[in-house]
Amino acid sequence: MTVKAMPTPEFLKLAETASDEDIDRAQRLAHEWLLVEDALDQADIRHTIPIFGSARIPAPDNISDYDLKERRCQNLSHYYAEAREVARRLGQLIEQRQLTHTKLVTGGGPGVMEAANRGAHDVDHQSIGLNIVLPREQHVNPFIAAKHSFEFQYFAMRKMHFLKRAKAIIVFPGGFGTMDELFETLTLIQTKKMPRVPILLYGKDFWQKVINLEVMAEHGLIDPADIELYHPVDSVEECWQLVAPIIETLAQTHE
After folding, report:
1. In the beta sheet, which residues pair with residue 150?
2. CA–CA dist 54, 229 (Å, integer)
3. Facing residues of 201 across strands?
4. Residues spanned by the domain of 96
5. Burial of 42 (C-beta count, 10 Å sphere; 0-12/13-18/19+)
6. Domain count, the chain
C-alpha cells in the first residue's frame, strides 16, 4: 500500500530542547496513524461499527484447547457465539445494502474479536482488524482479509482509528483492554471530543456487576444524564434492533 510521506522533525518539534528520542517517538506515532489512515482512505471506508470484547473468551466448541487461565472464561463462551451471530447479521445487511464504504471492525485478535470477524466472514463481509503487539493473548485471527489487517504498537493510535469513523459501538464482556476502550469512548463523548454514537453493552448481567455509574452520579462525579450514554442489551435481536436502523440510514442517505 502507498504510505504518505513521514512528517519532518521540524514539523513535529515541540520545543528547541526536544530530544532525538522524543522526535523519533513522535515520528513513529505519526507514521502509525498515517499508514492506516491512508489505507482506509484509499479503500473509501467512511463508516465503521466497532465490536469490542475479551481475547480470552473461547468458542463453545474450542474450550478444551484453551489453557487453564482461559478455561475460567468457558462459562462466557456463549458470548463468542452471540458476537459471531451479531456480526453475521450486521455484515449481511451491510452487504445486501451494498455499503462498500461501511465495515465492521474489531481488535483483530482471538476471543470475541475472532467471533465478530468470523461472523462477518461467514457472509463474505470483509471486516477490519486493528491488532496490537502484546506479550501474550493477542494474535491475528484468520478471518480478516490481508488488506484490512493492521498491526499497532501504540494503544492510542489504535483507539483513534476505532473511533474516528464509528457509527455505533458494541461492547461484549472483557477485561482491562475492553474497559479502556469503553471508558475512553465514554469520556470522549461526555467531553464532546467526538460525536455521540450509540454504545451497546452486551450482556446485562455482566455489566451490571462490573460497573455502577449510578454511584458516580450520586456523588456528583458525573452528571445523571451521562448514564444514558450507553445502552445495556441482552440478546442478538435486541442488538440488531438498535444497530440495523443505523445501517439503513447510511443506505438511504448514500453517505
Report:
1. 130
2. 21
3. 171, 232
4. 68-252
5. exposed
6. 1
How far is residue 66 from each of residues 54, 57, 139, 141, measured CA to CA in Å?
14, 9, 14, 15
CATH number at residue 83: 3.40.50.450
pLDDT in tens, 87-144: 999 999 999 999 999 999 999 999 999 999 999 999 999 999 999 987 665 688 999 9
Rounded alpha-carbon distances, angstroms, from residue 36 to 29, 63, 120, 149, 207: 11, 34, 21, 9, 32
Rounded to whole angstroms, the Cα distance separating 49 from 95 reads 14
Residue 153 lies in a domain: yes
Report yes or no on 61 lying in a domain: no
Let me know if residue 79 belongs to a domain. Answer: yes
In a domain, 203, yes or no: yes
The residue ranking higher by pLDDT, 77 or 16, is: 77
The residues facing 104 across adjacent strands are 49
pLDDT digits over 175-185, tens only? Answer: 999 999 999 99
The pTM of the whole model exceeds 0.70: yes
Which cell numbers in the block locate residue 255? 453517505
